[in-house]
Amino acid sequence: MSAPKDDLAAVKQALRKEAQAARAAAAAAAPQDAAERMRDSLLQRVTTWPGAVVSAYWPMGDELDPLPAVKALAAQGHPICLPVVIGNNQPLVFRAWKPGNPLVPAAFGTREPPAESPEMEPDLLLVPLLAFDRRGYRLGYGGGFYDRTLVAMRARKAIQAVGIGFAGQELPEVPHDELDQKVDLIVTETGAITPE
């Protein structure tokens, strides 16, 4: 679904409100072990190699919690990092983190590693979303941080971006334009979806 930029921004903004309500309903209806089910599907479908750096996100509100998957990947020896917003219209940077290490309050109500944590460049990114479709398009929060980050990283090396969310967050089509980056895989509590 392509549209003029101003129209597309308005469509996305309206859709975000609906998507937040749909995610809340999906989270409320999900089984108690949804995060563990997502972890199991992720570990079955994602191909990693020794030392591959994994970026996750600190869950906010009713986002599907990636931490069980992160702990499993860390136990396999993968270095872990979390995203950090450094400014509007900037790609994210990623700082080293280990499960259990302290975090500091950050933009948008999330948490991030402290400034003294070393920067890393991930090979596998676990990406939060408000909604997704089967072509791999995701609706984010509107800052464009992941889109800019994926463009920059994909220009440098091969990476794998995995959207994480509840199955109930799926839409028939997510509106997008040429700036929107697709994810390579979507993993929910019911399984994994390879984009068409």
TrEMBL record:
Domain of life (superkingdom): Bacteria
Organism field: Aquibaculum arenosum
Record flagged with keyword Cell membrane: no
Taxonomic lineage of the native organism: Bacteria, Pseudomonadati, Pseudomonadota, Alphaproteobacteria, Rhodospirillales
Protein name (database record): 5-formyltetrahydrofolate cyclo-ligase
Cofactor (UniProt): Mg(2+)
EC number: 6.3.3.2
UniProt enzyme class: ligase
SUPFAM superfamilies: NagB/RpiA/CoA transferase-like
